[in-house]
Request: fold
Amino acid sequence: MTVAGGKRELPELAPPGALQLPDTVEATLPTGLTVLVIRRPTVPLVELRLRVPFAQAETTNAAVLAQTLLSGTATMSNVQIAAQLQTIGGALSVGVDPDRLLVSGNGLVSGLDRGLAILAEVLTGASYPAGEVATERERLADRIQVARSQPSHLARVALLRRMYGGHPYAVQTPEPEQVRAVGSEQLQELHAVRVQPAGATLVLVGDLDPAAALDSVAAALGGWDGAGRPVELPPTPPLAPGPLVLADRPDAVQSSLRLALPAVGRTHPDHAALQLANLVFGGYFSSRWVENIREDKGYTYGPHSAVEHAVAGSALVVAAEVATEVTAPALLETTYELGRLATLPPTAAELEQARQYALGTLQLGMSTQAGLASLASTFAGFGLRLDYLARHAEALAKATVDDVAAAATAHLAPAKAVTVVLGDATRVEAGLTGLGPVTREPA
Amino acid sequence: MSATQVPPLPTSLAAAGPALATSYPVERLTLANGLRVVLAPDRSAPVVAVAVVYDVGIRSEPPGRTGFAHLFEHLMFQGSENLEKLAHFRHVQGSGGTFNGSTHFDYTDYFEILPARALERALFLEADRMRAPVLTEANLRNQVDVVKEEIRVNVLNRPYGGFPWLKLPPVMFDTFPNAHDGYGSFADLESATVPDAAEFFETYYAAGNAVLSIAGDLDPDRARAMVERHFGDVPARPAPARPDFAEPDLTAQRRSSYEDKLAPLPAVAAAWRVPDPIRDLAGYLPYVVLAEVLTDGDASRLVERLVLRDRTVTSVGGYLGFMGEPFAVRDPTALVLQAHLPPGGSVPAVLDTIDQELDRLATDGLAPGELARTQARMVTHLLRDTDAMIGRGLTLAVLELQRGDPGLINELPRWVASVTADQLVAAAATLRADRRAAVEVVAEGAK
Reply:
């Protein structure tokens, strides 16, 4: 198609603004609870994130505890807790992973004091009533059973097992039968030992007066106290490259490709360069790998690659769901693009595009109450505050082609990868074997 | 700008006062070519969202071309008059932004959220493809492959794929526009041609059939000038006449089931027709609130009964429209309930219990505080959705497209709060088994 007037020029970008970081007001209560409050009065709401360290908490009990923390107290049933939270436009949810227990919620800011009082009652008095525990553990077991029919979950399970061996990160989902065996007493005991304020962080973001919010927290949660002690995780073991693990999923119409590569933590001097190298490789749509296997070859819909940070270590994880018949070719293109970046520097234009994306999306991530709350809470779990973003932005701005090339050589080389493929083994094994050694296991 | 006068609210909400309503400034203009434009300045963060919505969706696909609206959405990213393939993505992301597009029953959206400095660039990109996407055989074949992988990820290679948004409409509706598979059959996708795409663009992607919205860190005067500069010479084409997709209500219960080879647990979804969301807003709003009274959290009717007391389901959810967007859907649409059952659970028993609970609500009415607390939670959701600039931009654009008034964004919390107990109970009384369409997932993956 043509239009009179000829080629139109892409508008230039306006000059960049400085990174805008919100002010955080911080206090630590005598109990050891750290409170971070950020005023962002865009809507009359408050976002809440309570992060409690949960390293080494037994996986099954921790999972059931998260499912039943809101199931009742001495004075409130599960239904009453939910109803009272609704009255202030609120709700709470609980999640757990090998690093932390996370209570998340939001509601009308006018109901903050009431919400904190309900939270305090749960933290100091969750009773894990037998009937409710019986209901919730069955629900959790059902949900795990459903997860196990989902390829994304099965691929994740196989990858974690392959990456972490005997480390606590290796198994993050309990067996349904284990879940069904958990009773109130184990939950009460785990709660008493680990649901403690020492080392925990409460983040509030919203249309608040920070000083008044701190007072509210101190008043409501000051009585949440107990004998917490820090529990450490051992560092994650280095990845041990070896044969590709082929997890069999008979009749699958797609294969799930997963590769894990070594990475560094957020405060490591190479972190910014590694993030940029990952972007150039496959960490955003306009990357070599996505343009190759999606926009050129049509092998896949939503490939993605990201540096994942956990308290005990970081890893770069590459993931794609590809049509069964192109499983080996898709893996070949993946290792080709990794190897190309590990052995040849990116172009200056590629780096600049990735840099702008990294810097711009920092600002986007802070532009909502919910986004700010999650960022502040996540960083707090790593001993960082939002001002980390200013240092990180500076590092992103300064990284050179040589820095990024060096990071790619150190981290993206395909020889350093551990690789898992979940798919129909009878159809994909021959092709994969042509690319390298394969070990087969049931999904 | 829209009015900010606050009507009386139910007690618990009134206590929170006018702070509950938003007062986002909203400006509208219409270009000479018919393009409607909405500007919503908000300088609380240095980011801006640009959204373009077209008044075409799954329901407008021609027979034999299932999935075409979505496939065409993909083609809109494949290059345009001044932008080669891949350029759109690179320019958005290389400006520090993100992008996406999505296809709905009644509209298709395209959007970017970016640092404010990139606003004019985003307008250029959207205008270029509104003027003239480059539709080629190679790009069409590539995107048919990509869409097939999307369908495999979301439908074919996972349990409960397409449940219930693809599975309920064919049970509830009789006409092709309402009943067909919006993701499309592989046969239809593979037979799509470049001339089909050109015709679809010519008909539906007209300036007069689109709305552009810009929300965030912008100066209205400068933004208006940029819009005129980039969209002013988009050719004027009028909106096509929107067909009437109306179908009569059900007069007898409809039941269907299908086997899901991957699903480990049974599931069921049930739906009832609701009043026209646009032409009969007052009649429609009680159903929006009813869905939440039934399913929002542990204190809702069906969670308390089915999940916590009877333990006959492991989860239950309810919403308006098959995609759960109550204020972005046209008639005909439905209130949908869906539930997953434990192993060996009985779907007929669950449907019977739902009938009992609806009957109890219709007969005995609401408990004290039940309506107000549900409304309070819904207001939080509405406010939270528009705190994200992209959520605000898309909501504004669709309100303009479907209701001709983007300022209604400031009314949504009041709409929800205006529903009375009598209206809600009357709505519950209409959800009878003889008006219900239900589809059951038979869990073949359990074996």
In short: Chain A has two domains: 24-221, 244-442.
